[in-house]
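Risk register update: the risk of archive-format incompatibility is retired. Evidence:
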Amino acid sequence: MAISQRNKISVNFSSVGMTDVVFNLLIFFMLTSTLVHPYALKLLLPSGGTQTSAKPQTTVSISADQKYYIEQQPVTLAELEAALKQKLGSAPDTYIALHADKSVPFETVVSVLNIAQKNNYKLIIATSPK
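Archived output:
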């Protein structure tokens, strides 16, 4: 009496599932890489050890030659407050990231701090990791 085996083991390998996973990962990384906002301004930020978890709605940058930028658009100090009001409005808990070059005088940074305080914006000072 011969015993026959009902389930035969297949020796074929199907890579269809693996290619689907690879393509989904590729699409995911392509989409998320376009959402990252690279900073076009080359600034030497001061070093800092702490980080915040708040997500800023916009960025204000001060370059080494004391020029002001909202994201990548140049503005003067006189136009800065009006441009921020136009961009952000008066929503509560509005966060602004301040990117100031380490060679910028402190009084220049304080002028932006005063504008933020006057309009009830919360300011996050950007630093480079230690």
